[in-house]
Amino acid sequence: MPDIHQPDLARLTPPEAPLGSLALLRAIIRNPLEALPREAFESALTRRTLLGRERVFVTGPDLIQTVLLTEADAFVKSDAMRRALSPALGDGILTADGERWRWQRRAVAPIFRPDRVNGFLRPMLDAAAATRDRWLALPPGSTVELGHEMMRTTFDIIVETMLSGHGAIDVARVERGITDYLASTGWSIALAMARAPGWTPYPGQRRAARARDYLRGELLRLVEERRRLGSERDDLIASLLAARDPETGQAMDDRDIADNLLTFITAGHETTALALTWAFYLLARHPEEEERLLAEIASAAGSSPLQPSQVSALTRTRQAVQEVLRLYPPAPIIARTTTRAVQLGEERVEAGANVLLPVVATHRLPDLWPDPDRFDPSRFDPAPAKARHRYAWLPFGGGPRICIGLGFALEEATAILATLLPALRLRPDPAFDPGLQMRITLRPARGMPMRVERR
Ligand code: HEM
């Protein structure tokens, strides 16, 4: 097996001694993973105070269940996360709370029913085949930036399935816009923690504002165009246009719709692209697992291209995706703020506290996951999966705010892997260490260059 360095999550935890407030804020700006206390990787609940504000890190599955499900009404999305995301996503489904969230969720839920998701498999397989053909046309020995390639593939899928395909969107510019916007979110989060006023300037702000204006402008244009030209398509834009607030009967205005479109475009393609990027990285490190997936794909599809009806047979491939999401959860920390005092096990947490669920840490707790750093898709065999706590694995969150795109993402990642793997072998440089960086999502800090070889 090639000796490829595995990014070591433990390296990202701070030294034994807790960081002072300033060092902590600096760590949040640089990489919020470095600001996680070491104890959060060891105990179910860890309390800290930062500039007079309580921060509670919860990694134990019982307590996570309390936060996300049983006492979910005591929490709202964290103010720091809202400060980071709302300038771009407004009060859309991901950032809204209460009734406003509820009716937006109800409005879009039908698009994510399993029968609708099944109908999306054809465009998912087509987008994957386009990537495969692009790679097959490269000169031998070429290297691709895998993160970028996966973003492009999942972007095509989200635009095709949710927006009925909009050739007019400039994929490269939108991707750059999202990266530029996310680059300074560490600052917004740190400033919220420091309770700095909303107008406090910070590095990268102008660039983020330009990116946000571009992204919002593109989507507003799209909504206006749909209103003007109409369409028979029963897609996300149609659902949002038809949605009515159950109390006031009011429809969404163009800005509300654009907020949600941008939410779905970002939440719906970047996360899955990152999962696939880490998946190819882990499979390159585990050729024996790659062989096993290839055998499964061959037995489902034979020598013909994979068909939508065959994706459900790819059990091991889906398990490999689940295991990737355990080791590299694209949303590594889920954050909430308490709206009232709440009891978490033995501990009482007051209103206004920041409650953080470092999913990355829960996913590597040795009591839940023996030999936690090992990549082993068998962990998701039916028997061990059933025996585990429901909140031991939560890459998609849980409770009423669980990711609405869960089924979509799992089918999509499975379909893309199963289309690309049989045609091509992807290998990083053996000495390459991608590193881990959190920018709301979990990215390889140094990108993911991979050599592409035909099989
Ligand atoms: C591997 C891929 C994905 C991962 C890891 C992921 C992760 C998550 C997580 C953790 C949340 C909950 C955040 C919280 O509770 O604060 C969430 C929410 C959400 N996700 Fe995903 N997601 C993925 C793919 C998708 C896709 C494909 C879509 C859409 C097509 C999507 C759309 C959303 C939306 C709209 C929400 C907000 C739901 C609500 O608040 O009601 N996600 N996602």
| Total beta strands | 12
The CATH architecture can be named as Orthogonal Bundle
Strand proportion: 5-15%
- Overall geometry comes to globular
Unreliably modeled segments: 1-5
The CATH superfamily appears as: Cytochrome P450
Q: What is the H/E order?
A: HHEEHEHHHHEHHHHHHHHEEEEHHHEEEE
**SS field, number of helical segments:** 18
In terms of structural class, how would the helical and strand content be classed? alpha+beta
Radius of gyration: 22 Å
The hetero compounds bound to this protein are: protoporphyrin IX containing FE
Largest sheet, in brief, is: 5 strands, mixed
CATH class: Mainly Alpha
* Tally of discrete structural domains: 1
What distance separates the N and C termini? 18 Å
Describe the structure.
The protein has 455 residues and is α+β, with helices and mostly antiparallel strands. The protein has a single domain (9-454), classed as Cytochrome p450, CATH 1.10.630. 49% of the residues lie in helices and 12% in strands. It is built from 18 helices and twelve strands. The strands form four sheets. Strands 1-2-8-5-3 form a five-stranded mixed β-sheet. Strands 4-12-9 form a three-stranded antiparallel β-sheet. A two-stranded antiparallel sheet has the order 6-7. α11 (205-229) packs across α13 (254-285). The radius of gyration is 22 Å and the shape is globular. It starts with 8 loop residues before the first helix and ends with a strand. 44% of the residues are buried. The structure holds protoporphyrin IX containing FE. The site of protoporphyrin IX containing FE (HEM) has 22 residues, from α13 and α18. Protoporphyrin IX containing FE (HEM) is lined by residues 93-94, 105, 263-264, 267-268, 271-272, 275, 330-331, 334, 395-397, 401, 403-405, 408-409. Heme binds at residue 403. Belongs to the cytochrome P450 family.
